[in-house]
Amino acid sequence: MRNLEPKALWENFYHITQVPRPSGKRKEISDFMANYGRSLGLETTQDAIGNVLIRKPASAGYENHPCVILQGHMDMVPQKTDESQHDFEKDPIRAYVEDNGEWVTADGTTLGADNGIGVATAMTILADKNAVHPPLEAFFTVDEETGMFGANALEAGVLKGQVMLNLDSEIEGELYTGCAGGVDTVARFDFTPVAVEEGDIAIKVSVSGLKGGHSGCDIQLQRANANKLLFRFLKEAVSEYEARLVSAQGGDMRNAIPRNAEAVVTIPQEGKDEFMALVDEWEDRFIKEYDGVEDNIHLAAEQVACPKEEMPEDVQDFLIHAIVICPQGVYRMMIEMPDSVETSNNVGVIRMDGNCVEVVCLTRSNVDSHKEELREIVHSVFSLAGASIEFVNDYPGWNLSLKRPIVSLMKQIYQREFGNEPSLKAIHAGLECGIIGQNYPNLDMISFGPTIEHPHSPDERVNIATVQKFYHYVTTILKEL
After folding, report:
1. Burial track 150-165 (b if 16+ CB lie within 10 A, e otherwise)
2. Going by C-beta distance under 8 Å and a sequence separation of 6 or more, which residues neighbour residue 132?
3. Residues facing 333 on adjacent strands
4. Which one of 34, 293, 390, 401 is most buried, counting C-beta atoms within 10 A?
5. 174 in catalytic set
6. pTM of the model
7. Shortest CA distance to 393 belongs to which of 224, 96, 186, 168?
8. How far apart are CA 4 and CA 441, in angstroms?
9. Distance between CA atoms of residues 439 and 433, nearest Å
10. Measured between alpha carbons, how far is 284 from 297 in angstroms, rounded to an integer?
C-alpha cells in the first residue's frame, strides 16, 4: 500500500491505520494529528474535546485569496468479521492491496478509509512545500461516527476560512451539496426478572454472516438487519413453541446495519427437537428472502446452561412486537432526485444490561420535518410497548443548494480535468457540514471524496485509481480558489 501513488498520501494513510481510533478513543489519534502539525512547524491547536486545527500560510501570490478549510474526522467505525480477533482499542488496522490491484481493504475489519483517506489527503497538502494554495485551515474532528461530537463542540469564531472542502464522501465524481440530518431514539425496557419454569432448558439462537454496511450510504441496498431477523424468529418461537426470552443483543453501532444478533430463550425440554427444526426452517426462509442480496446468512441454535431467571412474559411480548413492527430501511425517496434516499430508519443496537433492555434506532432524513415524522413513528411504536424513550444526538441536515459559488467552480474544474461533468447529489449519510454551518452560516461548503465501498462494514474498501484522481482534483481546486 505504501508504494501506491500519490506516495505521500498513502504513506500518511498507512500511519493513520497504525493508530487505534475507534469512535470514543480520542486521545491517541488527536495527539498524533496535533504532533504531525507541530512537526511541520505549523500553527496547531487542540480544543478541550480533542479536535485539531492546523493552519498553513498561503503560497506566494495567494496571500489575499479566500482562506480554505480542509475538513475531515479522525475516528472510524469498528466492525469486524465473526472470525476476527482484532482489538480496535489496541491493534493497528491490517490494510493491504487486493489481488486485482484496484482496491485497498483490511484483513477482517473495517478499513477506516472513512474518513482516513480524507484526513491523509489534508495531511499531504499540509506537508507539501511545493503545493500551490490559498491560506489553509485543516480541521480534524473527533467522534463523528457516534454523534458528531467534535463538530458540535466547535465554537463560532474559531475557523477563519470562507470556503470549506469536506473530504468525507464516498463516490468519486459526485459532489454533495446537501446531507441528511439524524436523531437517535433510545427505547428502554426495565423489568424485574421472574423464575425460569422447572424442567425448562436454555437455547442460544444467533443470526450471523450478514453483510451489514453504512446505515446511510447502504440503506437502499435492502441488506438484512440481524436484529429484525432475530426478532421475527422469536415472535413465532414465543407464540407457538412456548419459548421465553432470557436475554437479547445485536449490533454495536447505531449507524451500521447490524450483522450479528443473538438471544437466549428457555423452552420445555420435550420441545427441543421441534425448536431446532424451527430454526432450520427459518434459516431457509431468510436465505430465500435475501437471495441475491445476502450470501452467507446463518441462523443457528445451541443448548447452553440454563439460567435461574428470565424476562416477565408481558415485557418479553412488548419488546418482541415493538422490534418486529419498528420501521427498518428506506421510508421515503427524494422527489427532486428519485434515485436518492430521503428518509430512513435503522434498528441499530439491542443491548441488555442487568434488568434493562435498550433498543437504539438512528433515523435519518434530508428533510427535517420528515425526520421528525419518522422519529415520532418510532417513538409511538416503543411508547405503546411501554418503553421509556429518549432522543439523543439530534443533528441537522445540510439543506440542498446548487447555487453555491464553490459548486460552479468545481463543476468547471472537473469537466476540464476529467472530460465529463460531475453529478450533484444530496447524500443520505450525515455530514458535519450541517452542524458546522449552524455557527458559520456564510461558509461556502461542498463535500466530495474517492470511491469507498461498504464503509461501516468489514467489506470496506477504497478504490486506488479514484484516490489518485481525488488528490489531483483537490490540489487543482486549491490552485484556482
Report:
1. bbbbbeeeebebbbbb
2. 59, 62, 475, 478, 479
3. 341
4. 34
5. no
6. 0.86
7. 186
8. 39
9. 10
10. 9
Tell me the sheet residues that pair with 250: 261, 350
Which of 137, 144, 444, 460 is flagged as catalytic?
144
Distance CA 177, CA 136 (A): 21
DSSP per residue, 32-81: HHHHHHHHTT-EEEE-TT--EEEEEPPPTT-TTSPPEEEEEE--B---B-
Q: What is the largest CA-CA distance in the chain?
A: 84
* Exposure string for 224-262, b = 16+ CB within 10 A, e = fewer: bbbbbbbbbbbbebbeeebbbbbbbbbbbbbbbbbbbbb
Peptide bond into 115 cis (omega under 30): yes
On the 0-12 / 13-18 / 19+ scale of CB atoms within 10 A, 180 is: buried
Coil, helix or strand at residue 330: strand
The identity of residue 246, as a single letter, is V
Tell me the one-letter amino acid at 1. M
**pLDDT at residue number 427:** 87
**H-helix or E-strand containing 244?**
strand 244-250
Distance in angstroms (rounded) separating the CA atoms of residues 70 and 138: 5
What pLDDT shows up at residue 400?
Answer: 65
- Report how far Cα 42 is from the mean position of its chain's Cα atoms: 31
Closest CA to 121 of 12, 20, 39, 32: 12
190 is catalytic: no
Catalytic residue among 11, 75, 137, 262: 75
Mean pLDDT by 10 residues, the chain (481 residues): 94 98 97 98 98 98 97 97 95 95 97 98 98 98 94 96 97 93 97 96 98 94 98 97 97 95 98 98 98 97 97 98 98 88 97 96 94 98 98 86 86 97 90 92 95 95 98 98 95
